[in-house]
Design goal:
With 573 residues, the chain is an alpha+beta fold. The protein is built from 17 helices and 24 strands. The chain binds adenosine-5'-diphosphate (ADP) and magnesium ion (MG).
Length: 573
């Protein structure tokens, strides 16, 4: 085919596709326009998921009647004139694309009355062209009606989900934008029913109640950056450990009040919560990041939903620090997750205790807990939380008392995590203790196990396994990691190989798989009676290690019942 210029109509529809994907994106653009116009009240109405009707009414500045047709011209904007202005964008819009894009894929009526006008002007467009203009009576502000979206773009229509799914996306959009503008009243009406109503009283909590429900909103914890924040401020709300979700859909990030999707930001939250929440569970998080506009590029995507940070490593660690500070304030025993920082380690102000447990021979023979602080940590003392064992419940959980309430500790999960961390550290230091077997064990292996052993020989050796070939299909096991329970050497060896066969991840995960298995076979079991000195010793080790919250398999190690909560339950407060 010869090269030809496409018609302006076709070009407009293609460009529109980038801004207007679905009814929710129209709602987003129109609401952002209302916010840019300084509205304090915004009402959104949709019918049939927005496919039939979208209406957005605001009480903002309005559009002068002579500018009304211009607003629907491509690249017409009142917000950005010079390229340099891109450096300092604080308005939601700036590309001058939304109105013309919407008009090219739907029927649009826009009625607007600036505050100094004695009547409203209107413009009606079909297929992107003005078909009617005039004046009418209307209150101050702007209303945009969008009807029959995508009726003229069958290809796009085909990709839309059901009206109810599109409606849900609209609710999500409005509620998420509302969370960044607590001083604006938002009302959302879906098929004649009021679905969302934020009071606009300036209190984000009230908007949170509307967005996430009373119970969730009440249990969220306030995040605020302290004096160390510098140019990057982080604030918002996050889950305590008791509040988790099966999906990430209750996480929202805002950059300079713009609701954005950012892999980096969700990764920072996931990374922080990785050692706090059980595997496969996600935190609820509403986080506002404020930084100089020049440090963030909002012009990455036509819908402006993605952003690029100039110094993403700093944003990552600012977020981490804010979460860390929040958790430390909540719970002085808190020990943070690894916090892998793409820019390398940053000193994190925290109360974390060095997790390297001393090398010990027997399960519970531990020197007294010392509160060593990791290098780079502020010398501010680590908390000396002393837990006093009270007894055992169900021969599985240790009941303990601390200065701040009652603790229930899963004896196996807790011990397993401690043994795991110790083993990983010993492995990193190349100092795993090997226990030679008095009588070497002949262990027969199936074909897969033999292949795995050959493949992972170095890793197995580095964790203390020693063996040599022993005829066809067997090996002679001579040494195992110190501390395995009596009689479990062979089983541990074989299970480690079976576990490795399923591990497809990088080499580092192999190490974790071996360590988790060895830890599991080294530790006190559920159902095992523990003496008081044994419980005491385990609790001291927990203190020493900074109270890791999860076992290597992602199960919680402990529950904390704060004294205040106990008192409340008994109506003493
Ligand atoms: P952008 O928001 O990127 O400037 P739009 O196509 O969304 O581009 O809007 C074009 C222009 O129309 C805006 O710059 C603004 O001047 C005007 N406008 C749009 N919606 C409103 C509104 N609700 N109130 C006042 N002015 C508006
Ligand atoms: Mg706009």
């Amino acid at each position: 085919m010869p090269i030809r210029l496409m018609s302006p109509q076709v070009a407009a529809k293609i460009a529109a596709g980038e801004v207007v994907e679905r009814p929710a994106s129209v709602v987003k653009e129109l609401v952002e326009n209302a916010l840019d116009a300084g509205a304090t009240q915004i009402e959104v109405e949709v019918k049939n998921g927005g496919l039939q009707l979208i209406r957005v009414t605001d009480d903002g500045a309005g559009i002068p009647s002579d500018e009304l047709p211009l607003a629907f011209e491509r690249h017409a904007t009142s917000k950005l004139w010079e390229l340099e202005d891109l450096q300092s964008i604080l308005s939601m819009g700036f590309r001058g694309e939304a109105l013309p894009s919407i008009a090219s894929v739907a029927q649009v009526l826009c009625v607007s009355r600036p505050h100094d006008a004695d009547r409203a002007a209107y413009i009606r467009l079909e297929g992107g062209h003005a078909v009617e203009q005039g004046f009418q009576g209307a209150p101050f502000g702007t209303t945009v009606f969008v009807r029959d979206i995508f009726q003229n773009v069958p290809a796009r229509l085909k990709f839309l989900k059901s009206a109810s799914t599109e409606g849900t996306a609209v609710v999500r959009t409005v509620s998420h934008i509302a969370l960044a503008f607590p001083d604006v009243t938002f009302r959302l009406i879906v098929n004649g029913r009021l679905m969302f109503h934020s009071p606009g009283n300036g209190d984000v909590r009230d908007a949170l109640v509307e967005a996430f429900g009373l119970e969730t909103a009440q249990s969220l914890v306030l995040v605020e950056t302290g004096h160390w924040a510098g140019l990057i401020q982080v604030s918002g709300f996050v889950s305590p450990a008791s509040l988790t979700r099966a999906r990430r859909d209750q996480q929202a990030f805002y950059v300079n009040r713009r609701w954005v999707q950012s892999r980096m930001l969700s990764h920072a939250v996931d990374d922080f919560y990785r050692n706090v929440l059980p595997r496969g569970r996600y935190a609820v998080a509403v986080l506002y990041i404020t930084l100089p506009p020049a440090d963030v590029d909002v012009n990455v995507h036509p819908a402006k939903a993605e952003v690029r940070f100039r110094r993403s490593g700093e944003v990552f660690s600012a977020l981490h620090r804010a979460l860390q500070a929040t958790w430390s304030a909540l719970d002085p025993t808190f020990s943070a997750s690894s916090g892998e920082d793409p820019q390398g380690p940053t000193p994190i102000p925290s109360l974390r205790v060095d997790e390297g447990a001393p090398r010990v021979q027997s399960l519970f023979d531990l020197p007294t807990a010392s509160s060593r602080v990791a290098p780079g940590e502020p010398a501010k003392a680590a908390p000396a939380l002393i837990l006093r064992p009270v007894g055992q419940v169900g021969v599985t959980y240790i009941v303990a008392e601390g200065s701040d309430g009652m603790y229930l500790i899963d004896q196996h999960a807790a011990h397993e995590r401690l043994a795991f961390d110790k083993l990983m550290k010993a492995n990193a230091d190349k100092a795993v203790d090997v226990q030679g077997l008095l009588e070497p064990l002949a262990v027969s292996l199936n074909r897969t196990q033999r292949a795995t052993l050959e493949d992972a020989a170095t890793a197995m050796e580095s964790f203390g396994f020693q063996w040599e070939p022993f005829g066809e299909g067997a090996v002679l096991l001579r040494g195992v990691p110190t501390g395995l329970r009596d009689g479990e050497a062979e089983q541990t060896f074989v299970e480690a190989l079976d576990g490795l066969a399923q591990e497809e991840g990088p080499t580092k995960d192999r190490g974790r798989a071996i360590a988790a298995l060895v830890a599991c076979h080294s530790t006190v079991r559920a159902g095992q009676v523990m003496t008081f000195p044994e419980m005491d010793s385990l609790l001291r080790w927990m203190t020493e290690a900074g109270f890791p919250r999860l076992c290597p398999h992602g199960r919680p190690t402990m529950m904390h019942l704060p004294a205040a909560q106990i008192d409340r339950n008994f109506l003493r407060r």
